[in-house]
Amino acid sequence: MQENSKDLHYTRTSVYSLQYHLIIVTKYRRGVFVGPVKQELEELLRSLASQFGMKIEEMEIMPDHVHLLVDAVPKYSISSIMKGLKGVTARMLFMHHPEIKNKLWGGHLWQPSYFAVTVSERSEEQIREYIRHQKPAKESKDNDQIT
């Protein structure tokens, strides 16, 4: 386990430890997160997480979905975090990579739903391993461009 992952966080008004396993899926499960699109998505997610006061402990970007293990703050609700992550990433990726619109229609990058579950100290390592082992080794080399 990472040493900081289960530490308590202290603010003037609260003491907390909030970890979530988040999954967001592309509309129609279209595989658009490859090559430079995947790289930009990772950079965007790290930047946005920082803006929400979150730390990404683990991340795996598959061609059609994203797994995140985040250490969050109680200041923002999960629904507002997900709305921010999905909205900004969709806008930026469509602007910088208009070719992904060929695989999607209706102007939506993400499914309207998402998965969020709290992570306990007992389940954290299992979730870390699950996220780390999402992608077979061969697939990581093969998906360098949008097909």
UniProtKB/TrEMBL annotation:
GO molecular function: DNA binding; transposase activity
Location of the Transposase IS200-like domain: 15-134
Highest taxon, organism lineage: Bacteria
UniProt-listed GO biological process terms: DNA transposition
Pfam families linked to this entry: Y1_Tnp
InterPro entries attached to this UniProt entry: Transposase_17, Transposase_17_sf
Coiled coil location: none
SMART domains: Y1_Tnp (SM01321)
PANTHER family registered for this protein in UniProt: TRANSPOSASE FOR INSERTION SEQUENCE ELEMENT IS200
Record's protein name: Transposase family protein A
Species the sequence originates in: Lentilactobacillus diolivorans DSM 14421
